[in-house]
Amino acid sequence: MKLDFLKNKKVLVTGGTGSIGSLLVLTLIKSKCKVIRVMSNDENGLYELSREINDKFTINYNLFSSQMKKQKVRFFLGDVRDIKRCHEVTRDVDIVVHAAAIKHVNISEYNPSEAMQTNLQGTKNMVAASIYNNVSKFLFISTDKVVASTNIMGKSKLLAEKFIINSKKIIKNKKIKISAIRFGNVIGSRGSVIPNFISLLQNKKNINVTSKKMARFVMTPEESIDSILKALGQMNGFEIFIKRSMKCFKIIDLARALLTFFKKKGNKTSKIIISQKNIGEKFEEELFLVNEIPKIHIDNDMFVINKKFSIRRNKNVENISKYRVSNFNFMNQQQIIKLLKNLKLLS
Fold it and tell me: With contact defined as beta carbons under 8 Å apart, do 152 and 115 qualify?
């Protein structure tokens, strides 16, 4: 993929120490962008990312400040809830990728006001600061859980996504382009089901599946970064981007595949326990609503939802509809294991 649009640009990644944020930072280092700013409220995460960059790119500077001078990465400790800090980190920035969020459904359910403060108010703060500081592009990382949302995490991200898509009225005469991209579950991300299952089975413990009906859209980390860069390169403002060819699997198939894999490694004691659906959990996820289909066009293997798109122009309704819900074209157990091995999550 050509990344010419990044040349000599200053890029800010919020939530830059998370699974997606940190991988995006490592990818951007290889581009011709001028500076990468990493914002996170995770102090140790910033330090660990700096060490990882040091190791990968052989900087060999012991001093944190010396490393930043040598490399084009700047590490900013801060929280998107703090509007003053948002203004400071967006000053003289060209592109913002807003990945900071509270992402765990169960944590959000127990801490609803905190989820709203980070996911909604934090997004509003970053948008306001970006507009004020004349940022040229702002991309919000959303989730499939915003579609027909049944939990606090999904609802908070949905409100943030709506704010993004309807931000034209607050932009006024500024030239900033503001858009969103919806993700499925990113395979291997921190705290997600796959590393959790693997850890339990490595320690010969049982794994819980809340229902045999559970099915999810999944993306590899590389696919998520590729989608972000595609969206940044082609965004015009007020669109929602969605990767077209997302994979699906049933959680029970994942569990059975991993159990079989670890049995061959000597784990003869672990079992799958079918428990019960968690509060706010859906059997299937959706990438877009039925009433969004007429507003979708396909561009560069991406679904693009645009309110300006005319239903009369959309001749791909049937083709688009089949991708909407995570209930088709499931990966089988052999395919799941092969994918996890390719991603080096299993060996």
Answer: yes
